[in-house]
Amino acid sequence: MNILSAEALEVSYDDTVVLKGLYLRFERPEIVSLIGSNGSGKSTILKSIGRLLRPGKGTVLLNGRDIHSLPAAQVARMLSVLPQGPQAPDDLTVRDLVSYGRTPHRRIFGKGDEDDEAVIRWALRETSMESLAGRQVHTLSGGERQRAWIAMALAQKTELLLLDEPTTFLDIHHQFEIMELLQRLNRKYRIMVIMVLHDLNHAARFSHRVIAVKGGCVVRDGSPGEVITEETLGEVFGIRARILSVGDSACAGSIVCIPYGVCR
């Protein structure tokens, strides 16, 4: 399992410090959700550990080596990043999009081989996109489009998958479709999933670990039950909420968050 860590990480935009002396470590094939209010630093954390942002201070380590010292192709063979709202050219088909996930495994100007084709078919199958492989990406529904992008990330064949708000703008059916897909990939292939989520109940239902962020700092880090508490939600989001345990067999052990007001 690839190990990813942030050591004394500090990231600034212009003169504004967004992350302050951040320490995080990811070493197990878990589903990890980053939660926090808008502007808390969640997406900045994801971009920093995914090598999309270079920190002003501190280091991001991938298997003990500075991630920015490694060749981009080598990092892309170990770690997939799916930003929020990715865009594709209008004439690009789903299959072509997924094939780009094989780029880190090819030589310069190299064409795909039989192994690439097998991986592309596997990624399409695992995301239930085989029947849509010939469709242009821009003609897909929101949920289908997100599955296509996840298929591309899967085609990289990495052990680490980073996603920024993968359920944004999707209806409740397609939100659960994406969350259940990520859960299945984690269980079946032991892929570590690190994602930014706004929906606290999705974080509680599908995560092994939740990290609550405020002002660029980690406020709580632990299991959903340890982090998604009335006290933490008041501190991080400024809301009042009730946290209920779910005894139903379909989601035994889960908790449900019911916000009912803002803190005064």
Automatic annotation (TrEMBL):
- InterPro entries assigned: AAA+_ATPase, ABC_transporter-like_ATP-bd, ABC_transporter-like_CS, P-loop_NTPase, Siderophore_ABC-ATPase
Membrane topology per the entry is: Peripheral membrane protein
One Pfam family hit:
ABC_tran
Keyword Iron assigned to the entry: answer is: yes
Tell me which Gene3D superfamilies the record gives.
Answer: P-loop containing nucleotide triphosphate hydrolases
Name the predominant localization: membrane
List the GO biological process terms: iron ion transport
Extract one GO molecular function annotation from the record: ATP binding
> Where in the cell is the protein located?
Cell membrane
The reply on keyword ATP-binding is: yes
Q: What residue stretches are annotated with the ABC transporter domain?
A: 4-240
What GO CC annotations are associated with the protein? Answer: plasma membrane
- Superkingdom is Bacteria
Q: Which residues form a coiled coil?
A: none
Q: Keywords in UniProt for this one?
A: ATP-binding, Cell membrane, Ion transport, Iron, Iron transport, Membrane, Nucleotide-binding, Transport
UniProt name for this protein: ABC transporter ATP-binding protein
Organism (species): Candidatus Nitrobium versatile
